[in-house]
């Protein structure tokens, strides 16, 4: 497995085409705005090599029997599913921002299962190809991004009805040795830090939209691929030398748009091609899986830092023993743990899928994400209650260091007498960073799927006929027919099979 | 194991002292107000004997190796904990009201562990006694209530400081053959339907309050024990012959006050006696355990019926495909499943306790109950949204049956043309029953512990030092000390041990 | 103006056809279940004659110049609108349940304006007729119910498409001297206590639905009119002699279904007849007006009692100075006052309508009701937090009075030593009454219009074009065009006129 | 009155001591980071001179009878209070960020009343002094900041107990011609754009804390005064030439810390000096008054832009007619209007104070702010729902303008075909700006007082005795004593006077 240093070098060597503020980036590791985001990923590589995290961060490949990073491992048991959630929480609590790797992992899991099931249905050979690519990823310990979201243009129109056909990524040419694709993938987390791009279609396609039913992987430096880094709140603070103002003094995340301009994909890297029924299943798997990492363990790990910050700032402000502040912190813990409970239960209730791999409970995956997306806004309030207004109006680190006015800042930003002013300022800045700065969690709203997708999933998968039967029995409308309509074995009610 | 009929006869024979509306009840099974509540318990006995529920509703006693009801089984594995939650959900969804037995079960689990741990600490012999009693309960398939809540009088005063010392149950005399107790237990669920009373102290005691640190079991017809049935919304509808107006046409629940007026308890039924440190641990176990049955699986099973009723009434009203009604039902499902997720995770993360039995994760138990107590009020709104106002203003079944005006009721309470008016009325009545009638869930607020207890538990058990350390590291205040302060193995953070 | 006694006698004399539990009621004032509801209305008559309430409860008729009850007064100024809200709050806080008269008042206001506007548009003569009837109502000091809600049958179908055409009230015959109508009105508040029925259509009609566009008034004892009293939670407790268990020891409310079976209406009491455009305007006025009485002042007055009960039970329980209980009570006050603020502002921003009468701000009327319908569920939680579980499990008054067990009840339901047990029981029972008993406020959800109607009203009346313009200006998409799109004079933005 | 240009020149001439990033600012109007904030204030001056806003933005001085800006006008009628709220809303909706002037206005109102009342109580002469200064402010059309919040240091300690006595601003020397003060004021909105500093103490003082009971005004360029500009999210984007990335392309706000290092204040500018009872009343007035401007009208005006942006982005995304998106926008309107209702009612219920000026209803002021602080987090969710993830991951304007990749951005950020890509990007950037950028509204949480202050105010001013009486009457515990405890005339219940 790669060390952190090897990982950084590998990204340097990759030298993918990256644009930032309209200019080509010479070297991702040497760009001051991009480096903290690369360091966040590097930290995951570093922790993978540390013996104390071995159990959570590594596993044995079911393909090769070799020890691999859990970030390239397809879960083969409930225990694997559980450890995945715990790993993600651990990393989020240590890095205190998005570490960017869960999307790629969940994308690989998605395609592992989807290719298997598609092969079963259509007699295709995608699964074998995919395993080969996966084995390569495991061996080289590589990090892929999952390219899922198309730009989508006018959302009231289907892919084939868009004014510009490329607004959903598609095959524009079929060649003997592979296909040529055009389009883009939006909201690409970690796009400057990945070795590979794993592209998966994001919605149901109709028969006449075969060209859009395409999945594949290419190295992120492939010809025709351009990465355009998105702006973030406070992104340019990373150009400043005063790290206190970064809030999170080491790490950041990065997202953006990846464009595919006539990119060639050889056949052995094509994992779907025209199977229009497949994307719906792929999205069910990706959504249900990703919603307990990105929307589950990761959120919980971040909230470890939030709760710590809230408790710390209360202490620094002299509010430690104030009843309503303790109440606020308690609610943060209860809200956080409810998300953890759902994410973990999704894992505990995982089951073997046709491919032989394990998938977590899909409904609970959706429940987890829905809960975390709704809770986040209340949590933002809680985080700021003990802090007071300083995260929003506090002078800069340069003011603190200033010969002329540093004394004023030192004097008037003092909280509890025994706490250095600088400590209090740092924690305020971290709270700013997590509230409205680079690491705010507003992305939780749509990340891993907008709330509406979870609302719909819950409705569509619920066995309403069975529940209506229960109500009818209680009200005396129907007699009990216990045997014919019993819930599924796992205690979760699901759609009646026809 | 007892059949439903045997159970009912056993209660008749028991002939405990029960008062209802100031008068002594001659026979619980023959009292029209009390019978539906007895039937709810009888239904649990009936389902225990049905082969299709064998897996959930029975288990093998670790004391005798015999097959027993899960309602007398102390969980000996994670699987047992999981099945307990599922059993409770199953019953709540079928009976559509409180089936009254989870408190007694959780009380037995509590005392199984507490007696063991107290013996370890103090060299006492309670555990052996308790096992003997438990074996008897298993063999005879008996149902105990857990007498936990004292009347408490003035809540700003400790037990020993109350104007009337009996406001917390206590030992008033110690005899050679046992103790004599005075006091009462409030909010006794199922008090008229139980064979035994298992009394457990409900709060921390101080050294001078030894007389209050008393736990024991007595048959519910013991001399000096009086059960006073509490009033409930719509309780006297059960005197009416028109069952439609009951809402739930078969079952009800019952609660009340059990008074102990110089009740003698022989030594072999005394399970704590003066160990003032024990009640806190007992309450931690009882709370954490009961909060995933009463506040977890049971709530979820009830919501099965709620969701079914909401979907059904929407259909009967012609609102089935209305977008905002589907949205409401979706939210009911998501809220319900979040509670299930937490309850199940509490079970999945259960662990072996010193006694050898298994306890679910205590923090998640508290999280589950807190979530369900907060969610309930929103759920009440959701349930009534598709129903409209009829659950609150609808004529009686007698109006429907009336020769003079029945035709009007039939004509004007018609919903969708193909649905009989009576069906629509029945589901409206069920919704009334679950909203403000006999089976409303307002009791969820304080049942199994007021929200404030969960808020406090979360704060007190959280490893805030560790979380503050994480925030300090992110903000650059401290260097990482990964090894010294790592979270517990199970991924939940808990109090730093000293 | 009528005294309370005169009012009660007038209802006795009226002797309308009332059914309760399938049987004809001989005399409303002598029926034990119906009497407390009649007394609630009688109390409003009594307070009208008391000098200390003269300013709020009476006014000068703009028709006759005579002093009249505000319950028959059409507001002719902002001050009148403001006093209407305050009167309603006062009554709700004193009677502690629905006093039933605001619907009729708002119905009269609605038809006063609607008839005027319809006459202007169609050259009809309804307004003069209506004024004559209104003058009669003022002179005789009569109480009408507003018959608004039709049974509606299948809600996915329009009136004319229902299987049974009578599911919306309609004209079935036109005669020389008047019309004959069939149908019913549902959720009729105070139906057994009213002198007159004022019938108003409840939804938009199409050209072919002329027969449904009918408004009129008839005495409530008119031939062919049958009132069927709806069931309520705990309704039959009023048959019990122990008044403590009523919760509210004096008053109750009543609702039900009023059936019109070929009822003849003479022309001088017909206020709309075939003007299919009129009902939409009538519903806008009725909704916007009623939502600040029923959904505004009345809710606020009830919450006066709720907050008082919460504070009192906290005191009786010894919880008066507990921080989180004070927090709960504070939130009740803040939520209550926000509703009052919106209701009052709706009144303050009232304006003269074409008829010369004043209407409150319609948007704020909707905002008020929406807020109160959403707040109610949280308030229910708050009310019960300081109470604990006793409102749900407490023995009956008969238990307290029992010679055999009264001593137990007296002893163990004691709270703070200096508070008589009976007082504590009474307040618990009142909380039960307001939570799940006869006076629960669940009816707030759909009463005066379901939340969805307010949601739609807000969307449809908002000047979104203007607001989009503001956003475009801020984002640099458009230049400011201040003059062409300025908000309306009253500072509320409303739909752009074409 | 000053034109916008005159205002800007006056600030240039003032040349106060301002630090930004540790360096002295040469000229506020010429500083690229500070200028947009100055422009926001200048816009208020410009609108004051426009005839179409004359009614809202100007009034007649009750001191001089001359036409003045409403920003220097003490309300002398309910109409004035109402116009103040409407003016603030108007400006917030046009400037789309904090325009910084309401604090100063509310500070002047506060001291107008406080000085009068203190004079009455203590026979001092502050009011005359204050009127003279106010007349000067009106004549010169000057903008003062209100310096209210002290740094406070350790919040568990009183002013006099802090390790550093200056952590609350205080008099350090009393001279014949005036006083010398040391200390600082935090969270100073508009600190670089104000002509004067109006300093008011922020909390209750005890007898031995006389030195802290000091109020005064000094020009903002007074010797010893240093303004240190606070950091804000995305503050340095204003250094970039691409204005689209500013989000709000014209305006910003500014806050920071103002330090008083031995600042001399002549007697004629001292408005309180040692009257330790006065600050509590000043804070009641300032809180209650400011909470309907900063926390009322301003929030509502901002939400005009939010709602417009949400509706616009829905349209650009092709989501205009999607049911759940319309639902979201409806809720934004309802939430916004509830805040407006409370703020307006606070104004409508204003009353003449002893000084002859008018104060809005204080309780409703607190209710308004509490509501807006709680609503804000839900609004943040609503704003982002129709936007999708682009506000957080969208490329920069420089990417759009880039010769190399501009075509990609143009192509793939296209939404609805007829909407230019740039328009869609602009609205996304505005949403970013209002969510996590320079104009986010997180400051609403603590601005104008933390929620806890409103919670406490509600509890302390509520006439709980009267409400408990109402509950006792309903429950039959007490007879009605209507006259002795009647609510205040204005329909709001307030503290029983002794």
Count the beta strands of chain A.
14
- What is the percentage of strand-forming residues of chain A? 5-15%
For the record, the CATH class of the domain at 283-456 in chain A is: Mainly Alpha
Architecture (CATH level 2) name of the domain at 283-456 in chain A: Up-down Bundle
Mean pLDDT of chain A comes to 94
**CATH topology group of the domain at 283-456 in chain A:** Butyryl-CoA Dehydrogenase, subunit A, domain 3
**Widest beta sheet: strand line-up of chain A:** 2-1-10-11-7-6
N-to-C SSE string of chain A, H for helix and E for strand: HEEHHEEHHHEEEEEEEEHHEEHHHHHHH
Largest sheet of chain A: 6 strands, mixed
Q: Can you tell me the residue ranges of chain A where pLDDT is under 50 for at least 5 consecutive residues?
A: 482-498
The number of distinct helices of chain A, counting runs of at least 4 residues, comes to 15
Class by alpha and beta content of chain A: alpha+beta
Which percent range fits the helix content of chain A? Answer: 40-55%
């Amino acid at each position: 497995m790669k060390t952190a240093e090897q990982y950084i070098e590998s990204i340097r060597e990759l030298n993918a085409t990256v644009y930032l503020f309209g200019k080509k980036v010479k070297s991702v590791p040497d760009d001051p705005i991009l480096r903290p985001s690369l360091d966040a990923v590097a930290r995951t590589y570093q922790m993978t090599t540390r013996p104390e995290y071995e159990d959570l961060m590594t596993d044995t490949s079911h393909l090769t029997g070799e020890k691999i990073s859990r970030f390239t491992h397809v879960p083969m048991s409930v225990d694997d599913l559980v450890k995945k959630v715990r790993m993600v929480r651990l990393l989020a609590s240590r890095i205190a921002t998005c570490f960017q790797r869960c999307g790629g992992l969940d994308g690989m899991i998605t395609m592992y299962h989807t290719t298997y099931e598609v092969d079963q249905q259509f007699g295709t050979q995608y699964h074998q190809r995919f395993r080969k690519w996966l084995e390569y990823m495991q061996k080289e310990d590589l990090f892929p991004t999952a390219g899922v979201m198309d730009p989508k243009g006018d959302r009231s129109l289907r892919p084939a009805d868009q004014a510009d056909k490329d607004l959903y990524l598609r095959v524009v040419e079929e060649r003997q040795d592979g296909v040529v694709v055009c389009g883009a993938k939006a909201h690409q987390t970690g796009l400057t830090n990945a070795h590979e791009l794993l592209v998966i279609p994001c919605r149901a396609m109709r028969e006449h939209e075969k060209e859009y039913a395409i999945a594949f992987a290419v190295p992120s430096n492939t010809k025709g691929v351009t990465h355009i880094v998105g702006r973030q709140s406070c992104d340019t603070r990373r150009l400043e030398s005063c790290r206190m103002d970064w809030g999170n003094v080491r790490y950041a995340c990065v997202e953006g748009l990846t464009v595919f301009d006539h990119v060639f994909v050889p056949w052995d890297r094509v994992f779907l091609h025209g199977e229009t029924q497949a994307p719906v299943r792929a999205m069910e798997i990706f959504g249900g899986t990703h919603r307990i990492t990105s929307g589950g363990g990761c959120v919980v790990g971040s909230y470890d830092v939030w709760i710590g910050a809230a408790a710390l700032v209360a202490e620094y402000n002299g509010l430690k023993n104030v009843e309503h502040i303790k109440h606020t912190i308690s609610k943060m813990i209860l809200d956080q743990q409810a998300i953890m409970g759902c994410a973990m239960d999704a894992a505990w209730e995982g089951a073997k899928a046709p491919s032989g791999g394990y998938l977590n409970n899909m409904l609970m995956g959706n429940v987890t994400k829905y809960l975390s997306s709704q809770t986040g806004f209340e949590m933002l309030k809680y985080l700021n209650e003990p802090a007071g207004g300083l995260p929003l109006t506090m002078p800069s680190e340069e003011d603190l260091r200033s010969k002329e006015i540093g004394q004023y800042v030192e004097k008037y930003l003092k909280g509890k007498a025994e706490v250095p002013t600088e400590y209090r300022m740092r924690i305020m800045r971290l709270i700013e960073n997590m509230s409205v700065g680079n690491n705010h969690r507003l992305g939780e709203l749509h990340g891993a799927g907008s709330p509406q997708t979870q609302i719909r999933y819950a409705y569509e998968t619920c066995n309403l006929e069975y529940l209506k039967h229960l109500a009818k029995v209680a009200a005396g409308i129907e007699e009990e027919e216990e045997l014919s309509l019993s819930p599924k074995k796992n205690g979760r009610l699901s759609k009646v099979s026809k």
